[in-house]
Specification:
- It contains eleven helices and 15 strands.
- With about 375 residues, it is of the alpha/beta class.
- Helix 4 links the parallel strand 2 and strand 3.
- It folds into two domains: about 230 residues, Type I PLP-dependent aspartate aminotransferase-like (Major domain) (Aspartate Aminotransferase, domain 2, 3-Layer(aba) Sandwich), CATH 3.40.640; about 130 residues, Aspartate Aminotransferase, domain 1.
- About 35% of the residues lie in helices and about 15% in strands.
Length: about 375
């Protein structure tokens, strides 16, 4: 089976010296040597001063809302994302308000946000979808006019840059995922990028139960710390990050060259990316292809290639979201629903061979021809 993704893994021999240092130190958590080194290395790599490692990005999104004082209000967000985006809003006792997306990027459409703003709106939480960047200038101008916070779900976007630098510098806070499937992974983990030293201090305090000293708790926090093993792994991964991106870029180019000749299969993006991270390879299966997206996905799986319908369905369609949140778009999320019914992410990861990409495209063409 060719899976849609596989974790980037360095050699075990390269990782063992890090483990030996952890065993010798006896420090497994609580901001140890490797945690401090990784935060510094990430800050330097991104060119951003206020970064905080966390145990995962879902907790990171919750900490972001807490740092901005967002509770009991409405948060305008995307329906086209992994469910953790809106789950984090609900866990912080806020209400997600879903607004439709752009068809070419999968990102929140800034033209539709203003109509969804009410007296209860506290923040906007867009997703940089597949690494495609939100129109940050439009979102932040709108937020400024209405005195709203902006939290970017940047889980797909480590390493992505626009003309001004890292995508993570935008908004009040950006949150990155270092989950095993991401372009940079720490097994599980995440990063909160704050826009000020005070905000970083709040995040760092809140992720450690609210302790500000050995015997003092100054706010109600949670346990959101990243452990030393994950931090050490992240340091090793960061050394190879550009190598990983180069490998992904080669596969992306082969896909695009081969699929350009396949009617009914449209490559999504890139949109508003100066430097790309090639985190995903999403395609749109439209009516010009011989079979539907669902039929194609099932047929590919039967042939040993697992492609993911990512994201499908849109978040408001989940059973858990029945009667939860509200729809802030007059068109009732038609673009998101349409894209969700057609999107298919094809396999891409550094260890995937170019020959396997050709096989994947050959299988798509074969399925289409057989059904024509």
């Amino acid at each position: 089976m060719i899976n849609v993704t596989r974790p980037n893994l360095p050699s075990l021999e390269d990782f063992l010296p890090y483990l030996k240092q952890i065993w010798d130190s006896g420090v497994l958590s609580n901001g140890g040597k490797f945690h401090q080194e990784l935060e510094l290395a990430l800050s330097e790599y991104l060119g951003l001063p206020h970064v905080s490692l966390v145990c995962n990005a879902t907790v990171g999104l919750m900490l972001a809302q807490d740092a901005l004082g967002i509770r009991g209000g409405e948060v305008i967000t995307t329906p086209f994302s992994f469910v953790a985006t809106s789950n984090s809003i609900l866990w912080m006792q806020n209400k997600p308000v879903f607004v439709d997306i752009e068809p070419n990027s999968g990102c929140l459409d800034p033209r539709l946000i203003e109509a969804a703003i009410t007296d209860e709106t506290k923040a906007i939480m867009p997703l940089h979808c597949y690494g495609n960047m939100v129109d940050t200038a439009e979102v932040e101008a709108l937020a400024s006019r209405h005195d709203l916070a902006v939290i970017y779900d940047a889980c797909h976007s480590f390493g992505v840059e626009d003309a001004g630098g890292s995508a993570l510098r935008h908004g009040d806070i950006s949150v990155v995922s270092f989950h095993a499937t991401k372009v940079l992974n720490t097994f599980e983990g995440g990063l909160v990028v704050s826009s000020s030293a005070d905000m970083k201090k709040h995040v760092d305090t809140a992720k450690n139960f609210g302790f500000t000293g050995e015997d003092e708790v100054t706010l109600v926090g949670i346990n959101g710390k990243l452990n030393e093993v994950s931090a050490a792994f992240g340091l090793l991964q960061l050394q190879r990050f550009e190598e990983y991106i180069s490998a992904r870029a080669e596969l992306d180019a082969v896909y695009r060259q081969r699929l350009a000749a396949v009617a009914g299969i449209e490559c999504l993006g890139p949109v508003r990316q100066g430097k790309r991270n090639f985190a995903y390879f999403p395609v749109v299966v439209d009516s010009n292809f011989a079979v539907s997206r669902d039929v194609l996905a099932d047929a590919m799986k039967a042939r040993g290639v697992y492609c993911r319908k990512y994201f499908s369905p849109i978040i408001p369609k989940y059973l858990a979201y029945t009667g939860v949140g509200s729809l802030g778009s007059a068109d009732s999320l038609q673009v998101a629903a349409d894209l969700s019914s057609k999107i298919l992410c094809l396999p891409i990861y550094p260890d995937l061979a170019v020959e396997q990409v050709h096989k994947i495209v050959d299988e798509i063409v074969s399925i289409g021809n057989a059904a024509a």
